[in-house]
Design goal:
- Helix content is about 0%, strand content about 55%.
- The protein contains no helices and 27 strands.
- The strands form 7 sheets. The protein has a 4-stranded antiparallel β-sheet, with no helix packed on it.
Length: about 400
Amino acid sequence: MVSRLLMPLVLILSGPLAGCSDTGVSKVGDVDDDTPKDPVDPEPFSADWGQWLSMTTSPDGLPAISFYDRDNGGVGFAMAKLEDGVPTWSFEGVDGYPGASGLDPGDRGTYTSLVFADDGTAWVSFYDQGAKTLRYAQRHPTLGAWSAGLADVGDGVAPDTGLFSSIAIGADGNPVIAHYDKGAATLRVARWNGGNFVGSVFDRGDALTPDTGSEAEAKDADVGQFVRLRIIDGVEYMAYYDAAHGDLKLAVGTDIHIVDSEGDVGHWPDFTVRDGQFYISYQDAGNQRLKYATGTPGSWTITTVDDAAYTGADTALYFDGDKPRVVYFEGKSNDMKHARSNDGGWATQTIATEGAVGFHNEVVSVDGTFYVACYDYTKRNVYFAKLD
């Protein structure tokens, strides 16, 4: 995968993948900072859209996605009406698209994350590749107009922040964005104060200083990649990777805990909290396998779910009743896989095999039916299908 996958794989770019949409995104005018723009009619024109996909459901219960439009260097948004499980997408450009004057505001839209507030406002966070900053956009709940602006600039000698952005709505109804500051190698959080975002460092990490005689090499502090933010019952939770120590970390409010430190672990975490218990899927990058942790801080049960080669990236965790399920990427054949837990064991199967599929996996429930979406690297658009 271009820019996202941090593991060896050979992309097999072959035939089309059934179930993928061929439509593009709509052209829009300039999206200036904090200036609402009228929505436009969809006009398919992009041949490469869907990277850095984020998916949730709208207040009306429709699947909604934000994504990077690689052709145009912009961030797009779409909602789908489903008929027999097949989506018909309505597209809107959000930020980064050339305006009527032809001026291009820059290459924006990787590392997207999407959430809806209770009033129906859609919020999107994303990375500005040119300015190396975190940006945001919000969609008016009734007018459908977008406004966009700067969310955080980070710090360090060479500022570069906004990677792996993850957005959620706080107890006060305002959005919160967790993101990785590459320039300073820290985890940052930006909070909306009613008029703009204010960013600060959440975790600076610790340098690795090996014990005398250890074969490990000293490493500078580097923490925050792959961050996933959830706000549940008003409590903020973040799962993320500590690159200096190779650990999976979990923040509960302001408290930081180590979940797994066996080897180089903690890539691509997804998690939820149920009845006070944490459930976390993630990749063991050192062994290229899928792992799963359950429990509470200080008391974890850790399981290897799938130890096939080059497995476990881009995890999406969900529950079907009381049974955990994980969708994830298998990099040897470039397939999407599905793991199901039943009676304490795990069964895995490949669920999408045509082309290179399974990047940026997301799962939603619509009327009791689960659907998965991801970026299809072969067709260069979005794969969307029902999960059986």
